[in-house]
Amino acid sequence: MKDTKNIKEILKFTLLGLIGFIVFYIISIMKENRIYELKEVLNYIEIKYIVLCIILMLFFGITRVILRKYNK
Asked: For this UniProt entry, which segments traverse the membrane (predicted)?
């Protein structure tokens, strides 16, 4: 049961990072006062940055789980 809780926490952290990243790009697009089509937005957001963000959030999630495990 504890293992699934840890995995859920890591996934939650990763999703939060991805949502935050998308919101950041939407705000930066809105500042330019131009409406983009979905294909343009996907071209604008480079895939490597999304992957980097997911890896970073996975790292933070795993680190948080490990720290919580050793603090008990």
From this structure: 12-29, 49-67
- 71: nearest Cα among 11, 63, 58, 1: 63
Rg of the chain over all Cα atoms, to the nearest angstrom: 16
Q: Which of 65, 43, 60, 51 is nearest to 21 (CA)?
A: 51
The pTM assigned to this predicted structure is 0.44
What would the DSSP string read from start to end of the chain? -HHHHHHHHHHHHHHHHHHHHHHHHHHHHHHTT-PPPHHHHHHHS-HHHHHHHHHHHHHHHHHHHHHHHHH-
pLDDT tens, residue by residue, 8-50: 777 777 777 777 777 777 777 666 656 656 666 666 666 667 7
pLDDT given at position 40:
66
